[in-house]
Amino acid sequence: MKLKQEVNQVIQAAFDEAGIDATPISVSEATKPEFGDFQFNGAMALAKKLGKNPREIAATIVEHLKTDGVIAKAEIAGPGFINLWLDDNWIATRSSEAVADARLGIGVKENPIKAIVDYSGPNMAKQMHVGHLRSTIIGDTLANLLEFLGDEVIRQNHIGDWGTQFGMLIAYLEETGEESSVSLRDLEQFYKDAKKRFDEDPAFADKAREYVVKIQSGDSHCLGLWQKFIDISLGHCEEVYEKLGVNLSREDVRAESFYNDELPKVIDALKEAGKLQESDGAQCVFLEGDEVPVIVQKGDGGYLYATTDLAALHYRAQVLGAKRISYVVDARQAGHFKQVFRVAKEAGFVPEDVKLEHVAFGTMMDKSGKPFKTRDGGTVKLIDLLDEAVERAKEAIKDKSDYTHEQIEALAKTIGIGAVKYADLSINRESNYIFDWDKMLSFEGNTSLYMQYAYARIQSIFRKYGKQPEGEIVIGDELEHRLAMMLLRFEDVLERAAEDAAPSQITAYLYDLATLFMKFYERNPILKEGVAEETRQSRLQLANLTAKTIKQGLNLLGIDVVERL
Ligand code: ARG
């Protein structure tokens, strides 16, 4: 439920009642329990506007405030703040409804939009490396989240499958024949070997160059080789997606090559819009206030990364009809996106009302604060990193249990992959972050293991109880009030996280929730003898809603829960 909106409405009603005109009204969450659940801080600004005393305005609002529904109590504090306490019965009813609902009481957007999330985008000439991890999982989370809230989400995997290096790669693929499907398992090595041939043998180099021209002119033999190369390379990526549990399939691929035929049209359209200027033989767009122009066509006729992105923007806005287009790409491409977004809008490729955003993220660092590399300075292959995560998870849980070998394997996958994803998603995405195995696989702190443990712990209460709870929630004390309040905030948190494209807001919430639950569980026994039945049922349901909320939250992050740990 949209909790904040409910509270805003009550304040609005008080304004209407008092005959004060002030919209929109916005309460904020109280920063301390002694300030209540929410605070309304608008009396000060209003007083200024009306030339009145803020405490007087606050008093008028409080006087007209209904306290027999959502809000139980209102107090004026300081210069004119209004502290608000929500009503226990109201909270209890709402959370009882939430626990009985498959969507936990979370609504579906009334005016959904078409939203495109551009993420992952690996280059086919190279192995997926850790840099692609961030785009892949942040993008997947954003797509899941928007979809859950009701938007129509179109996932776009803008893979790099075009460019001069493919001439060399397919010439080498042809030369090595069937074996290369195997040697292509290590793309990095394949690239190095091809490059070596290119540098050492002029005949091979000529052929490579000839093949570039041939692919570009649509030669079927070369295109066939190219297609084969892309298929194998994309297959590697899909192995990674599968391991990561990411929702990207072949249908989501709109490769750079998809836009080939559109590129000359981009140039024409820019010309028509009066945006094009020649500079040093190249076709450029100069943006006001920017020193460096956007080059869209080189002197030799070749197109660039920006040209393809302009074609993609046109396609996404005009053909797909997207109203929000999110690019989940490394922060180092900020300049590129700023420019192509501007060009696309100024040239009318994208209507004014379409939201274009670069969902930027920082670099993954090792413990010494340097960009994450293998011991010998190479790029870390994503697949190796994920395999290591599973191995390490096995290590972390091996003496925990009475599990069979198969159970350990399955559990290690869920825990290991979850740990890598959560560690990444829980960091403010724009910061660089330190990749630290020990920290991410810890049972303590803001980790996936902690969340999975909290969930499993609640399930163990139900196992002991012997059945699923089905009673009503009643608020028994301050701690239960706070727990229920936090549970009811879930939709507000998700909405905000979707707006800001910020998965870390979800993890921060989940962590606070799990921590508060642990406190509640310590102080408020559930199954212990002597607990009144009504209280037991209510506490079981609070635990139930907590578990469901954790599960739903992790689910949006693409992380599974475990029933036992
Ligand atoms: N292939 C690019 C890279 O690896 C990312 C593509 C991002 N998407 C886009 N539309 N430019 O850096």
Helices and strands in order:
Layout: H1 3-18, E1 28-29, E2 38-40, H2 43-50, H3 54-64, E3 71-77, E4 81-86, H4 88-100, E5 114-118, H5 130-149, E6 152-156, H6 165-176, H7 179-183, H8 187-200, H9 202-216, H10 220-244, H11 263-272, E7 276-279, E8 282-285, E9 294-297, H12 305-319, E10 324-330, H13 334-346, E11 355-361, E12 364-365, H14 382-397, H15 405-425, E13 433-434, H16 437-440, H17 448-465, H18 478-488, H19 490-500, H20 503-523, H21 533-556
Parallel strand pairs: 5-6, 5-10, 10-11, 12-13
Antiparallel strand pairs: 1-2, 2-4, 3-4, 7-8, 8-9
Helix pairs in contact: 1-3, 2-3, 4-18, 4-21, 5-19, 6-8, 6-9, 6-10, 8-9, 11-12, 12-13, 14-15, 17-20, 17-21, 18-20, 18-21, 19-20, 20-21
Bound molecules: arginine.
The site of arginine has 9 residues, from helix 12 and strand 10.
Description of the structure:
By secondary structure, the protein is of the alpha/beta class. Among the domains are: 3-86, Gyrase A, domain 2 (2-Layer Sandwich), CATH 3.30.1360.70; 448-556, Isoleucyl-tRNA Synthetase, Domain 1 (Orthogonal Bundle). Helix content is 54%, strand content 10%. It has 21 helices and 13 strands. The protein has helices spanning 3-18, 43-50, 54-64, 88-100, 130-149, 165-176, 179-183, 187-200, 202-216, 220-244, 263-272, 305-319, 334-346, 382-397, 405-425, 437-440, 448-465, 478-488, 490-500, 503-523, 533-556; strands at 28-29, 38-40, 71-77, 81-86, 114-118, 152-156, 276-279, 282-285, 294-297, 324-330, 355-361, 364-365, 433-434. The strands form four sheets. A four-stranded antiparallel beta sheet has the order 1-2-4-3. Strands 6-5-10-11 form a four-stranded parallel beta sheet, sandwiched between helices. A hairpin with an 8-residue loop joins β8 (282-285) and β9. α2 packs across α3 and α6 crosses α9. It starts with a helix and ends in a 9-residue tail after the last helix. The model has no long low-confidence stretch (mean pLDDT 94). Arginine binds next to α12 and β10.
